[in-house]
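Cross-posting from the modeling subforum.

Setting up a comparison between two proteins and wanted a second pair of eyes on the formatting. Protein 1 (sequence, then structure tokens):
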Amino acid sequence: MKCLKFESFDKTIIQCYLWDEVKTPKGIVQIVHGMAEHARRYDDFAKFLNGNGFIVWADDHRAHGETETKETIGYHDGNIYLDSVKDEIAMTRYLKERYNLPVVVVGHSYGSFMTQRYIELCNEACGVILSGSACMKGIMIDFGGLIAKIQAAFIKKSKPAKLLDKLSFGGYNKPFASEGTNFGWLSRDKEQVAKYEADEQCGYVMSIAFFEYFLNGLRRAYFKRNLNQINKKLPIAIFSGDRDPVGGNGKLVAKLYSQYKKLGIENLSFKLYPEARHEILNETNNKEVYADFLATIEDFIAKHKKAEEEKAEQTRIAIEAEKAAAKAAEKATAEAEKAQSEESKAE
């Protein structure tokens, strides 16, 4: 894993990570991590992808990880949500230019909600995986966004949003409270949960500003005019645990699938893992999840390659047709000139 500094669209420096020890890479996987965590948690998955021929890139988003300091973590100036989405777009463009390879975006949790907006704002990825996601439109998002706006107007925006955090996540752990941890809802793997709890860059309360921009930005992501910007040919795969409270134990995940289906997305898939919780890449069945993600990524890359080959062939045929037309026109002109010359001589 290499640590890199990326200068984003507005000159903000984002902490990034690159796993590129791949001899003959087939493509790039861009990981977009979740809320109150960081990209280094995906090291094992990234190495797995390296071993299967994929370069991996990930970043610590604004208000997260090493992009911030101990004093600023949870907060960043500006529109944290939208600017973070724009960061991902800038990174995809950078990766495509640097490696000349197709990019698959894998967004988890908050990262999946960023990815939902990402696919409305650009057409840079050749496919996306939404992990631990949901369709979050409705009264709860509207209500949360309103509270965040009110708090932002009267309280310092950089302060931890304890009320909003409780309203958003307070009930998630209730079904797992007997396990003696506040984060049992993340995974059945107790070791993974313990690692999360011990990590000072995980599980902290995000700022009022974060919730203000995230909730109101996500609400806009479900506006019809924005959804209609999604490329209908873009492959989208949705994966979640059926005991993930973020996805409403599967209900809000199915709602997300239905939304994209009605929108006319041509290549759309959806899978729920029985008994799995929120962090499916860190679940007890993560080998199954790794294999499913890999198969999906390889399918996206293969479809992209085929589409590019078909496009190249169409371009070749068009060029050949243009050349043939030009040659025919040149021949017709020459014949017309010859006929005219012969007529002149006859006169």
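Protein 2 (same layout):
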Amino acid sequence: MHMRRISIAAILFATSAIAFGSFVPSAFAKPSDDDESSSGKHKVDMSDVPADPRNELVSLRYVEKHIGEGFKVRRSLHYSIIYNTSEEDVAVFEYAIEKTYRACAKWCIGLDIEVHQPPEKLLTHFFNEYKEYERYSQIVGGPVSSPNILGYYDPTTDYSYFYNVRNTPAFKNAKLQIEETISQLADQLRRGDVSSDQKKAIRRQILALRASQNGMNTFGGDLTEEVLQHEVAHQVLFHIGFHNRQAALQFANPRWFAEGVAQLFEPIDEGGGSGFGKVNKTKAAEFHNLVKQNALYPVDGFVSDINYFFTGNVGGIAYPQSWAIAHYLTRTKRKELKAYIDEINRRDGDFEMTVEGELELFQKHFGKVDDAWVKRWKKYMERVN
């Protein structure tokens, strides 16, 4: 049975969340020591990618025509950024997208996937105001309908779009509230009627608040960073050889797989090093809750029918379930996963997606999806937290 027709808008990859952003100096936006010291096939190529000046100019003129003047182009190693934020905030943004690019490349190399640099810089938009971002999304046919949609990648334009959460009243108020609370706690410490135990508790509170404050000095520290990493991962993986670009608009890349893999890149740096490669604790908790409620979609249908991402409970079920399957396969069936990816990438512009074909491909590489398969999957995931 063929899939019923889905609009182009359904192709868009968008993530919703409420969060705050933060700042990391742009001086840190360079290859990590791991990248520089790597050798052989495990080395990530972080050399500068050529820009496409014509594409930059066309994009710049188009956004200024519809939104207004004041936009600039900033080039990083792999990106051309169309922006109208402060230089400080775009430096934060540059650091975050390049960090995600590097993580995507290293992860693909770890799967023994041949990674190539994009032929030219990828293009993204960074709007200082939500209203500008929302208006432009409407003009280009994007999905933005509320400030909760912090960013998205559109394969039809091949661009990504974000707005500057650091410039919102919510972010500024949260930052001010932390500063005021620290000041109040410091005043309490200076009082003479505070016991030794109370002072220890107050100092612990101040330390925790300062950690949050420091987190607001890097891009993210919360769901903002998760969203950016998720959406940038979509864009990067389409350009370095992981996803099929040739037949992307024919849904050559199973949607559960595209979304599941992008969620692997959501964990953020919590101060102990990069969050990439760590368990997505948010999605793990959501998945375990779905298992307890017996609310998961049938796996054989889920991995073969894209409509679960358009007619079902997308945020509540489809996303956690796709993450759990992707996590399981990347940890237990890496050889089979590479063969699955290779076959997807051989799909050409004449590819036509069917439910039967998607299920056949999945089972060819990962085994028949029966009760025993589902049981093994759930058993493995029980210890993933």
